[in-house]
Automatic annotation (TrEMBL):
UniProt-listed Gene3D superfamilies: Biosynthetic Protein domain, EreA-like (biosynthetic domain), EreA-like, domain 2
GO biological process: response to antibiotic
UniProt-listed InterPro entries: Emycin_Estase, Hydrolase/PRTase-associated, UCP036794_erythomycin
Coiled coil regions in record: none
Highest taxon listed in the record's lineage: Bacteria
Record's protein name: Erythromycin esterase family protein
Length: 428
């Protein structure tokens, strides 16, 4: 496979000028990553995020993280003064894989958000939210704290939902296994809770904080509804649980856009497998959808800009098995005939590429293996997996390629005993 690939230099933040120009007036910018443990993916997404906020007025960052933990960060970056160091605040992400959001790279972003927000009015402060669906029990606990302020009917509905899950020891997988072969589950309880919370009367309060808390309570109820569906779907196998998860993340993104107003703009941080349009990978053959596809379909392709990330070699933070201790692992040279190997051969340097400039190349209209490293990774097995067949110029609008990357820097967080079930394809 020999071709000439047009590319732009990528050495400093100023090299992002063409990317900002290409993003134009897009309402949602999706920033990917080829792993959950690479320093450069986090720092370059931070550099892009800062410029989108400062130059284009983006109002919030939404990440592949749990709603309750991320909302705690959201409140911290908006409420000043707050004396808790970012490194301490981020230890709220104590469920495996802790390093995804509990790392020094995110701590630097949190510090910047605090500084940026310090001089702004409440409605102008940039938020930080979680899109994911895993936090069933944590979301129920959050609801119990606030449901009493929403009236007796809402409080009673929340209590019934909470008590329904109590026999399962705060373990969603135990719940899913217990109800798999019986007719009684907690679906009706969580749906009733969500309906009652939606009927609530908004709480009066200063500075918009009460509006955020109202929104968060309703969002936790939505998490409970979709998490209950998700953990049951996981036992059926196939792509159903993946689709429940990504549809939930897209629904949450839509809710956040609505909450922030008709002119709001969002920055999304997720793995490439979520932000790169699934229709241009082998995921489509398995009936799987993702945020990148759903965002283009629901918001319009001209309103969504997807940026993929990847590297040729380096190191990464991951675990050798689900729930295993984190390790710094080598990332070997990319597999022959892969997208990453092609860029190494043709460019041999860090580069920024635009789909509009490479779409005409016949070789890139074929499905090419594109590396995807997950929270579970075994370098010695990479040549037999970890590559997603991809039509790159259609999956993304732009791509950041790095020749050599290094592992990110985790915080010393103590891991909670409850580990979510292993449901990621490719160990994502």
């Amino acid at each position: 496979m020999k071709t000439t690939i047009p590319a732009h230099p990528l050495n400093s933040s100023t090299d992002l000028d063409p990317l900002l120009q290409s993003i134009g007036d897009a309402r949602v910018v999706l920033l990917g990553e080829a792993s959950h443990g690479t320093h450069e993916y986090y720092t370059w997404r931070t550099a892009i995020t800062k410029r989108l906020v400062e130059e284009k007025g983006f109002q919030f960052v939404a990440v592949e993280g749990d709603w309750p933990d991320c909302f705690e960060v959201n409140l911290a970056v908006k409420q000043l003064p707050n004396g808790q160091p970012a490194s301490q605040l981020l230890q709220t992400f104590n469920r495996w894989p802790t390093w995804m959001w509990g790392n020094w790279e995110i701590a630097a972003l949190v510090d910047w958000l605090r500084q940026h927000n310090a001089a702004l009015a409440d409605k102008q402060k940039v938020g930080f939210y979680g899109l994911d669906v895993y936090s069933l029990w944590e979301s129920l606990e959050q609801i119990m704290q606030y449901a009493g302020t929403k009236g007796e009917a809402a409080a009673q509905a929340a209590q019934r939902a909470y008590h329904c899950f109590e026999p399962y020891s705060a373990d969603p997988q135990e719940y899913a296994e217990a109800v798999a072969f019986v007719s009684k589950d907690c679906e009706d309880e969580v749906l009733h809770m969500l309906r009652e919370l939606k009927r609530r009367t908004p709480t009066a309060g200063p500075d918009g904080l009460s509006m955020e808390l109202d929104f968060a309570t309703e969002q936790n109820a939505l998490v409970a509804v979709n998490a209950e569906r998700y953990y049951k779907a996981m036992l059926r196998g196939g792509g159903s649980s993946w689709n429940v998860r990504d549809r939930h993340m897209m629904e949450t993104l839509q809710r956040l856009l609505e909450f922030h107003g008709p002119d709001s703009k969002a920055i999304v941080w997720e793995h490439n497998t979520h932000i790169g349009d699934a229709r241009y990978t082998d995921m489509a053959a398995d009936g799987m959808v993702n945020v990148g596809q759903l965002a283009r379909q629901q918001l319009g392709r001209n309103q969504v800009y997807a940026v993929g990330f990847g590297s040729y070699q380096g190191s990464v933070i991951a675990g050798k098995a689900w729930g295993a201790p984190l390790e710094k692992m080598p990332v070997p040279e990319a597999r022959r005939n892969s997208w990453e190997a092609l860029l190494h051969t043709e460019l041999g340097r860090n580069a920024l590429l635009f789909s509009s400039e490479i779409r005409h190349l016949p070789a890139l209209q074929e499905h090419i293996g594109h590396r995807a490293i997950g929270v579970v990774y075994r370098p010695e097995r990479e040549r037999y997996g970890n590559y997603v067949p991809t039509v790159v110029p259609e999956r993304y609008d732009a791509f950041l390629h790095f020749e050599t990357t290094q592992a990110l820097h985790p915080l010393p967080t103590t891991t909670d005993q409850h580990v979510p079930p292993d449901l990621y394809p490719w160990g994502e």
